[in-house]
Amino acid sequence: MTGSAKSGIFAGPHLPMQLENAIVVDHQPIQGGYALLHMKAPAVAPHVKPGQFIHVRVPHLEECVLRRPFSVFRADGDNLSILYKDVGKGTRTLRDLRPGETLSILGPLGRGFPAPDADHFPLIVAGGYGMAALYLTARSAPVKGVAFFGGRAAKDILCVDEFKALGWDVRVSTQDGSLGHRGLVTELVDAWWNKESAGRQPELFTCGPGGMLKAVAQRALQHGWTAWTSMDNAMACGVGACLTCVLKVHEGDTWAWARACREGPVFECREVVWESLP
């Protein structure tokens, strides 16, 4: 085996991590099985940075030993919200939680997105769940740019009104053509670059399916853009101990393992060894 363990891999950044029984405030159904879960989490919420996540213990489901990661959609004072989709037993139990019940959460976890550079023009590229992970970045950006949202169908396009309310220009693509441009979200990025980018140096923030992340990274590498990518690897412990979420990153002339839950989930695209990913 070539490469090595990343230097100081078990040290990682200092995190104000808290274990808390958050109080469920409300459920907000959206569409297509998606919903927002709003919680009161005074120990965790004030420390959340854009792009970080929490690890949730699935309630009322004793056979689920491991926690599950969820990107933080919003964090306002003591309030925290996550976006999820009802896809199985675990998320179904979240759907059934009632106001006043508690939910065990661990967080905030991971290295999130850096503050957008005021000298660059920010572009957000999101697919599906990725839109929720990018809301706090959009809210904190000193310059409001263009947000490109992609999904398989209209039901997978989320949070458009929330991003527009922040002052972002939202452009949508769906693979089946049911909303916006018919095709891939990266085609919208290409169109922007070819027709509207004069005099602007973009900085990209992206979260979504692996294929989309790789396609965005290819464009960033080709054009010399800075692109921050949130790597949605499967995670077991969420705190860097189990090494199930590792990915290859460049280290000098070779490569090293990095943990998506600790050194990430956000990496600048030049850090990632993309050819090692499926």
Could you characterize what this model shows?
With 278 residues, this protein is an alpha/beta fold. It has 2 domains: 18-109, Translation factors (Elongation Factor Tu (Ef-tu), domain 3), CATH 2.40.30; 121-230, Nucleotide-binding domain of ferredoxin-NADP reductase (FNR) module (Rossmann fold), CATH 3.40.50.80. The chain is built from 6 helices and 16 strands. The chain has helices at residues 89-95, 130-133, 135-140, 160-165, 185-196, 210-223; strands at 4-5, 18-29, 34-40, 53-56, 68-76, 79-85, 102-109, 121-127, 146-151, 169-174, 181-182, 202-207, 226-230, 246-251, 254-259, 266-268. The chain has a 7-stranded mixed β-sheet. A hairpin with a 2-residue loop joins β5 and β6 (79-85). Mean pLDDT is 90; it is low at 1-14.
> How many domain modules?
2
Widest β-sheet, arrangement of strands: 11-10-9-8-12-13-16
Mean pLDDT: 90
Gross morphology is: globular
Spatial gap, N to C terminus: 19 Å
CATH superfamily of the largest domain: Nucleotide-binding domain of ferredoxin-NADP reductase (FNR) module
Number of helices: 6
Largest β-sheet summary: 7 strands, mixed
Taken as a percent bin, the fraction of beta residues is 25-35%
In total, the number of strands is: 16
Low-confidence stretches: 1-14
What name is given to the CATH topology of the largest domain? Rossmann fold
Order of helices and strands: EEEEEEHEEHHEHEEHEHEEEE
